Amino acid sequence: MRNSLVAFCALIAAALLPLPAAAQAPLTLDEVLQSSRRHVPQILEAVAKVRQAQGKALSAEGAFDTIVKGEAETRLSGYYDGSYAAGTITRPIENWGGSLYGGYRVSRGDFPIYEDDRFTNQLGEIKVGALLSLLRDRAIDDRRAGRLLARTDVDIAETERLLTAIAVQRRAIGAYNQWVVAGLRLSVYRDLLNLARQRQTGFERQVELGARPSIILTENEQNILRRETLVARAEQELATAANALSLFLRDARGAPMQPDPARLPNSLVAIPRPIGDPRAMLAARPDLAQIDLRLDQAATRLDLDRNALRPRLDLKLEASQDIGPIGLGGRSRVGTETKVGLSFSLPLQRRVAKGRIDATSAEIDALRRRRQQTEESIVNALDALAIDVQATERLRTLVEAEQDRAAKMAQAERRRFTMGASDFFLVNVREEAAADASVRQLDAAYRQIVARAELAAAAVDLKALGLE
Asked: How far apart, in Å, are the Cα atoms of 44 and each of 39, 115, 250, 346, 377?
C-alpha cells in the first residue's frame, strides 16, 4: 500500500514538472510572423496613426452637424414688460454649399418700437428657410473639401501602415531564417568536433598498443581545438541571431522574447515564389497608391482654389407664419410671409486664390514626376529581384550537389582510413571540406529565402508575409 502511494505521488510530481526542452515544438516562421504582426511597436504605431486619421475624419464630418440654438429674454423692470423666447435648428446641406433652417419664436407683453420685430401672435411664429450658393461654393466649399481631405488622410495612413508592416515582416523572415541557419551551422560544426573527439579516443587506444606514434594525439588535439573554435564562434552567432529575432518574437505583453535553442527546427523554411509576373502587382503597391492619394488631395485643393476665383452669389428663401390670435403687435403678423433675397460679392484682385492655384498646380506636377520615378524604380527593382531569385536558386542547386559529393568523399575517406589505405591529414581535409560545403549550402539556402522574401515584399505578396 505504501509503495503504491509513493508511486502515485511520483506520477503527480512528474505531471507538474515542465516539459523538457527537447519536447518543445519547433518554432515556426508563421508563429514569428504573427507575433511581429501583432506586437512590433512600428506596426502598432502605424495602426495608431490610422486611428488618429480616422478621428480627424470624424471631426471633419462635424462641419455638417445639425445645430440647435435657443434664446430667451424677459424684462424685470422698466416701462415695457415684453418677454421673448426663440429656438432654431440649422442643417448644413452638402449640395449648393448652403443650409436649411427652421425655427419657432413666441413673445408676451409689450416691446419698444425699435424691437418691433419681436412681436408675434399669441401662439408664436414658425419660420423655415434655405441658404444656397449659386456660384462660389456651389460645387465645393471648405466643408466638403475638408471632409474629402480627411477621408483621404485615412487611406494614406492605411497605405503607410501596410508599408510599415511589409518592411517589418520582411525583416522578420530574414531574422528567423538567420537564427535557423545559425543553429544548423552550429550542428555542422558540433558533428565535425564529435568526429575528432571520437577519433581521439581510438588514437589513445592505438598509441597504448603501440600501433601509432604518440605525435598523432597532438595532431588530433590541434584539430579538436580548431573545431572547438568553430563551435564557439557558431554559438556566438546563434546567440546574436536569437537576440535579433527577439525584436520580432514577443510574448503576450509585447515584450521581446529570446527564442529557446531547443526550439530550433531541423531545416529552413522556404518562401514560395510569387505566382505570375510581379509587375502585374504594381496596382497593389502601397507606395504608388499613396502618391495617387496625395494627387487626389492636391486635385481637391486645386478645385477649392479655383472656387475662390468665382464671385459669390447667394440665394436666400424664407417663409414664416404666425399662428393663434393676434398679439400686441397688431394685424401686420397675420398671413404667410415669404422672402427671396440675393447677395453678391467679388474680390477685384483675387491674388490669394491665383497664388494658391499656381502653387497647387506645381505640386500636382511634382507628384506626377515622383510617381513616374517611383514606378520606374519599382519595375527596375522587381527585375533585379527576379534575377537575384533565379541566380540564388541556381547557386543553391550547385552547392547542394557539391555538398552531396563532399559528404560522399568524406565518408569514403574515413572508410579507407579505417582500413589503413588513407592518412590522417587527408581524412581531416575531406571532413572539413564536407563541413564547409554544408555551411555554404546553408548560406545559399538563406540567400535564396531572403531574395524570395524581398521579391514577395516588392510584389505585395501578403500571404507570404503573414499579412493576409
From this structure: 7, 61, 13, 49, 28
